Amino acid sequence: MRVLVSALVLLVSVGTFSVHAADGVPAYTDLLADCSVSRDAACAGQQKALAPQWPKALAGDLPSLRNFAFCLADGCYGAFRLDPVRACALRIVVAAIGDRPLPAEDRTNFERDCGPLGPDDQQAAKVSARDLVRAIRQGAP
Hints:
Elements (H helix, E strand, L loop, with lengths): L1 H13 L13 H4 L11 H8 L2 H6 L3 H13 L9 H14 L6 H11 L4 H20 L3
């Protein structure tokens, strides 16, 4: 619950920062696992299928953001590097720019992906989310 309260504080504070291009917004290739060593035959196909969604996610498309948050937490058939901090950051972004009130599914996903992180990782996720929200609001990450 403390994580949820912290994220809500972030949501309020994000709007008070000046908007500028985000540093450290990952390129799509930075998220990918090496399919040549993956045991899952769906790896390369999953990477290819999701590639067109990354620009949409960076533009604030909620379904794309949710998909990438899931893939960074789950790996999506070995296609993505597991990155719990980035997964949490994307969940925070969904909460920051998404529907009001926050849908129960988004709240549950946020708690599942952000709750297990330690304080340092939660802080890193908040900073990453803030930068991505800034980039989305500017219109070009």
